[in-house]
DNA sequence: TATGAATGAGGCTTCATTCAT
DNA sequence: TATGAATGAAGCCTCATTCAT
């Protein structure tokens, strides 16, 4: 029942919500059309098949997420600063765009999304690898298997976002983000670079 | 096409594989029956509905996983030792029972599994919370939001298992496990308890 | 195999025939579709469920029957004339629309038809009660339990229709109708109002 | 869950109840077995098929009904007395054996019961025809189409039983029976044989 | 561009019946 | 006689997709 000058956009927005709420197979195209306020046939004018719809959605969301997460990274001086900003970006975007976050997690490894879209999606997050490698060169990140570090970092962020989403107040949220980033950095950091606190308001603490 | 004296068991085993390969809605009950080598009606003799089947499966797998992960924990002296053993148990079980691991991750938050089964599954992992709290009392684990620590720990293990599963050789695997456990422990540990290496072969290192 | 501009109408007509021939459960929706010359899905486009189909049919037939039976009643001078016309209407409609008649009898008390449809159907025959009460006020119908009179009248008409339907010639039919209406009227009439013959061709008799 | 030394008898009794409550197709054989307290296979030991079960039941009930209805008829002096007794027998049996009555009505013209069983059932009611013919010979019953008279009589009894079953008190019941039998007799009787009241307690009235 | 009636393959589930024990 | 696990045909219904308008 949305009103929008662009029906395609409305369809994508509606599909995102429904896919997250009910899953891929749990969401009939007829329902998407109805909730988007268009006829059943219209969906198939814009998207060849249902899979084409989710594929398009996946690419779009993944691109938006990557864009949001690496925003401002180039202005940071070193790997640690970059990583902390990346973390904050990730948490901010993940909590603000809850549906898109869930959508990405749901369909990251699902067979509904085409392999090419999966690959395209992954490629947008290669900057994470660059960041890790930069830290290793700097000597601030442990010189161990980079694949492991990326996996651990990504999954930790994912856990952090989930926890933050469940937080009650804004201040609790801030505390948890700081603690979570500590966790990640301490996991990544070379010996002499560990610290205990990266939360904003506690800067200067021992 | 399996041969087993117990048809119910065969159905569960077959369903596990297919659900992981193809998802819940992507797996027709007729396919499960066929691959299990029984008639279509037989599935519904043992399980009232398709949801009953996945529910039973979920409870079973979750119970098995919990049992495997907390094995031997009581013999360890302190929280750190327990956590490291837990990590090794988790990685061992997760890589050995790859399908079951994926199954748990897939259906942990999915609407196909009944809420009661979800709760029952979660309850089996409460020992993780106990472990964290024990460490905090000991002073070896940081005294911060336990919910966060549990989320971070669990998601980190999940990332670690994924990376280990992709490893080539047995020795590479061992190295990565040690490094991954370092990551987790350094994330959890209080300041004075951090170390750099928990991999088996490096015991005795500083 | 019917040809009609309206598929919904064709489905209803086909379903009526098949339900009478084979009963509700004896008639697969697939057969209705096939005989109606439409795809299986089309039936469910027009009717949400099989029960919705029979429900719609029931309402429609019941309404048509009631309408046919009370046709012209208001032009008759007294209860007796009305009742005889009602009887002739009933027999005429019942023999002409044999299938619809059987359908009504079959499904009047069956659980396939929703309670609301049953009630709606019944409400259309309340004019019978009015008629009986009018006769009682006039003094031409025995002043006894009206519920009984309605039941007896209705079941007698039903028996009459069945007998007439089995009749061979048109003239035999006419004779039987007259005799049957005598039966009913003599059953209903107050003492001084009985007569022996209400058949058309005997008009003018005492 | 009945206990009976004869399982076949228990199955028949259970099936009668369930068929009336839920119809033929609405009653799975598995339910009959369960409610009768026997295994699924046992039903098929006693009855070759489900249709064989209902067929047996139909014959049995029909025979019992006919036997009950013509009881004592031979001791009555004339057709009218016989008919009134028949009516009372019918009402008595029909209200006392409500389930069996409904069963007979439900399955009288249904395709579940074999044609031979239908015929056998009908043949047991031929005494009605004899009774009508006797009355015609006597001159007490109108000399018109006997088929019509039988149909009208039978359907009237059916209506009467339905009304009596809905009656509240025993005395109301008695009144209605008397009035109903009046209706029937007045419908059947030759001119000079009509009367107004056949209810027991009003004998001797004008 | 947009519509929505129409399609028909395919999914889940039921249930009469069999048969080894 | 009696059991109940096992069978598989068949039923109701959903839904992605098409196409005439």
N-to-C order of helices and strands of chain A: HHHHHHHHHH
CATH architecture of the largest domain in chain A: Orthogonal Bundle
- Output the CATH homologous superfamily of the largest domain in chain A: Tetracycline Repressor, domain 2
Largest interface: A-B, 38 and 38 residues
Biggest sheet of chain A, open or closed, and with what strands and sense?
Answer: none
The low-pLDDT segments of chain A are 199-206
How would you describe this structure to a colleague?
The structure is a homotetramer of 206-residue chains. In chain A, helix 1 packs across helix 6 (98-107), helix 4 (50-69) packs across helix 6 (98-107) and helix 8 (126-138) packs across helix 9. The first copy, chain A, has 2 domains: 1-47, Orthogonal Bundle (Arc Repressor Mutant, subunit A); 62-202, Tetracycline Repressor, domain 2. The first copy, chain A, has 10 helices and no strands. The longest helix of chain A has 20 residues, at 50-69. Chain A has 206 residues and is mostly helical. The interface between A and B is large, with 38 and 38 residues. Chain C binds a DNA duplex (21 and 21 nucleotides) through helix 3.
Task: Write the topology of this structure.
Four copies of one chain form a homotetramer.
Chain A: H1 7-22, H2 29-36, H3 40-46, H4 50-69, H5 79-96, H6 98-107, H7 115-123, H8 126-138, H9 146-165, H10 170-188
The structure holds a DNA duplex (21 and 21 nucleotides).
Quick recap of the structure?
The structure is a homotetramer of 206-residue chains. With 206 residues, chain A is an all-alpha fold. Helices cover 68% and strands 0% of the residues of chain A.
